[in-house]
Model the fold of this input.
Amino acid sequence: MDAVAHPPTVLLAVNIFVFAGAFWFGLFVAGPVWIILLFYPPVRRNICSHVLQAVSLAIGVFALYWVPIVVDPKYVTWFLD
Done:
């Protein structure tokens, strides 16, 4: 865990920062922005694009929970740490 607490290289620090930013954006910003884009008429696209986005979100969330269960643990232990 020392490598994450004190990154030994600049690139690792940038990598951790970018992934943390993407995580926080996806957790707190993406959902409300999607709802605003869905209900605000000037930026609304057709309903098919929103259904496609919701389906792709559901597939992604399903994969995040299903893949670590199905795949051999030696390939996903880094993800579960």
Observations:
- Residues 1-43 form one domain.
- The chain has a mean pLDDT of 76.
